[in-house]
């Protein structure tokens, strides 16, 4: 049975021989009803605070979940980029080891250096020293 402050105020007692002081009982019931009313208001207020706190907790959990997913995605993306860079670097190393270095190789369209070109003039023998 739910008791309200009004129920406490309106409660009546039967009279009996050598009964209690009616005014004292009424004052006590008034005090109890006031405290009961105050506790009811406090209870409602605390329930509202609890509901707001639960909503805040739910929002924070959603934010936490979103941040976790974002962090996990960033971590996976970073790992993928690192793996791709390592594969690309390994491929470039293998290609560089198979091909001669372009820095030292002469392009096919470039003319041969002057010291390796054939001459159209016949070579003269080197002068020799003759003893006279």
Automatic annotation (TrEMBL):
<keyword id="KW-0175">Coiled coil</keyword>
<comment type="similarity">
    <text>Belongs to the DivIVA family.</text>
</comment>
<keyword id="KW-0131">Cell cycle</keyword>
<protein>
    <submittedName>
        <fullName>DivIVA domain-containing protein</fullName>
    </submittedName>
</protein>
<keyword id="KW-0963">Cytoplasm</keyword>
<keyword id="KW-0132">Cell division</keyword>
<dbReference type="InterPro" id="IPR019933">
    <property type="entry name" value="DivIVA_domain"/>
</dbReference>
<feature type="region of interest" description="Disordered">
    <location>
        <begin position="75"/>
        <end position="132"/>
    </location>
</feature>
<feature type="compositionally biased region" description="Basic and acidic residues">
    <location>
        <begin position="85"/>
        <end position="98"/>
    </location>
</feature>
<feature type="compositionally biased region" description="Low complexity">
    <location>
        <begin position="106"/>
        <end position="119"/>
    </location>
</feature>
<dbReference type="Pfam" id="PF05103">
    <property type="entry name" value="DivIVA"/>
</dbReference>
<dbReference type="InterPro" id="IPR007793">
    <property type="entry name" value="DivIVA_fam"/>
</dbReference>
<feature type="coiled-coil region">
    <location>
        <begin position="36"/>
        <end position="63"/>
    </location>
</feature>
């Amino acid at each position: 049975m739910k008791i309200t402050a009004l129920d406490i105020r309106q409660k009546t007692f039967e009279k009996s021989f050598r009964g209690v002081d009616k005014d004292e009982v009424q004052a006590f019931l008034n005090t109890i009803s006031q405290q009961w009313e105050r506790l009811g208001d406090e209870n409602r207020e605390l329930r509202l605070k609890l509901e707001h706190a639960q909503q805040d907790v739910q929002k924070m959990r959603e934010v936490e979940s979103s941040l976790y997913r974002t962090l996990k995605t960033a971590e996976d993306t970073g790992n993928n980029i690192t793996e791709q860079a390592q594969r690309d670097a390994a491929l470039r190393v293998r290609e560089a080891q198979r091909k001669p270095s372009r820095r030292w190789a002469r392009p096919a369209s470039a003319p041969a250096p002057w010291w390796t070109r054939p001459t159209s003039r016949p070579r003269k023998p080197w002068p020799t020293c003759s003893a006279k």
